[in-house]
Amino acid sequence: MANQQLRIVVIGAGMAGILAGIKLREAGVDDFVIYEKADRVGGTWRENTYPGLTCDTPSHHYTYTFERNPGWSSFLPPGPEIQAYFEDTCRKYGVEDSIRFNEEIESAEYRDGRWHLQLKSGAQDVADAVIAATGVLHHPSLPDIEGMDSFRGALFHSSRWDHSIPLAGKRIGVIGTGSTGVQIISALAGTAALIEHYVRTPQWIMPVENTPYSEAQRSTFRQDPAALEEAMKTEEYLASVNSYTQVITRENMAAAQFWKDTCLQNLEASVADPELRERLRPDHEPLCKRLIFSPDYYQAIQHPQAALVSESIERIEPEGIRTRDGQLHELDIIVLATGFKPDQFMRPMQITGTNGVTLESLWAQRPKAYLAISMPDFPNFFMLNGPNGPVGNFPLIDIAEHQWHYIDQLLQKLRTAQCSGICASAGALARFEERRIEAAKKTVWFVGGCKSWYLDAEGIPSSWPWDYECFVSEMREPHWSDYELMPAPQREQAAHSAT
Ligand code: NAP
CA 215: distance to chain centroid? Predict the structure, then answer.
């Protein structure tokens, strides 16, 4: 079958966008561009620079499968090393030349069988297919606390860290007990004159050893990739992911007990003061919120210059935080580790598909996409880490690679001119949504009854509600009967580039 040259636009040069670039290049697609609104690659690892930034996926598993990194310094990869890994990989695979930095897409409209893109800079582009790799947890969620504007010190969200402000000798308040808040407390206890952790909901803390890799180990991994793969096997990471997922899907209550017992033992063994221990004890089911993996949070919060504040926040005043018991906590810096809006994805881009259907109208109730990848009325518009994917369940890079394998098969239909457009049918999305919501209501995120970023505005968990095997199997090959194919037009193939 004839091979059509396609013009492809990728949105975002984070982990998933770089992957798309590498894979397109590998497939011999030359006519593609990656638009990146910032001036560097890296996505979440570029935006988050807070002290203690670490990924809780074991480092050797936090790489593309085709580009391992023998040089990680420790079992859990530090944020700056991850950023460097993506920058290096991008360069090594020649993807950087295809990225247009400081270019933000404002709108995309499907017209006359192609996507017409308008960029904020005024430039325009026309593409046969669009790959949205815009990330998930990147729009900061700011709390609605009275008096926030009145604070005289520095106040910023964890993902907008102000590095111009020295931390030594300062009194710092951190609001939020997700993975971010916990990592910041661990990093700053002992550095700051005082670090206060404002904890509305105590979290389950899973212990993890963050062992450094020795130079000898790194050298072995460099010289012998098989040794690296072997070392990865001994970590039994996939078994751990499976066990974790079985707790989420509530298929294995013994696994749930294991995770709970391990976290409880961690609390009992690590926190000496019984009063503090009780204030740190969670009252919800483990994994109902995103579990926190930390080698040192309990030690950090017991540091003489650290304090846990369990009293809820009344308001923020010029001098600090006033808690409900009337106490004023005088502070120099307030960090909002209050998480992200998980329902934004490519928004605020205005996206319009066939027959004037807009993304806002399709997503009026909640963001949705067939298998997290494709949407009816949006032909040739595919997402990496789109809505309802396994974000927060399985390692994100692995997810993106599986999703790329699937998307590539959709693109292949276009490349081989079997159609001019392809998207999931409305029926397929409706059936998927029905199944997904039914399964989501059985997960610990729903049954456990706690508030978390997993829940959408109607309280339905938005992440993938099935296990890893199910995800991998769905990504193997599209069920073609779930797709609508538009007939291949007889049109001229023209070269298009941003103007
Ligand atoms: P998060 O998990 O959504 O946590 C937000 C925290 O802010 C919660 O403790 C929440 O309390 C608190 N909060 C929000 N509004 C508040 C208010 N008005 N007053 C007091 N507390 C308030 O956010 P995150 O820690 O940034 O993490 C988000 C996700 O990013 C994680 O779940 C994870 O998937 C990812 N992440 C991963 C890593 C990693 O190592 N892989 C590191 C960082 C982040 P409540 O619980 O009471 O609502």
Answer: 31
Rounded average pLDDT over 124-145: 96
Residue-wise pLDDT for 41-59, tens only, equals 999 999 999 999 999 999 9
Alpha carbon of 272 to ligand 1 centroid (Å): 26
pLDDT in tens, 162-193: 999 999 999 999 999 999 999 999 999 999 99
Protein residue with its CA nearest to atom 20 in ligand 1: 200
List the domains of the chain with CATH numbers: 8-39+101-139+341-486 (3.50.50.60), 148-336 (3.50.50.60)
- Is residue 338 within 6 Å of ligand 1 at its C-beta? yes
Q: Is the pLDDT of residue 140 over 50?
A: yes
As a whole number, the mean pLDDT across the chain is 94
For ligand 1, whether the C-beta of 322 sits within 6 Å is: no
Rounded Cα distance between 322 and 174, Å, is: 14
Task: Output the CA 289–ligand 1 centroid distance in Å.
Answer: 9
Ligand 1 probe mutation, 177, 185, 321, 454, most atoms within 8 A of CB:
177
Rounded CA-CA distance 226/138 in Å is 36
Cα 115 to ligand 1 centroid, rounded to whole Å: 36
Model pTM? 0.94
Q: Which residues, in sequence order, are CB contacts of 154 under 8 Å at separation 6+?
A: 162, 165, 332, 333, 334
- Measured CA to CA in angstroms, residue 103 lies from 40, 125, 279 at distances of 11, 12, 47
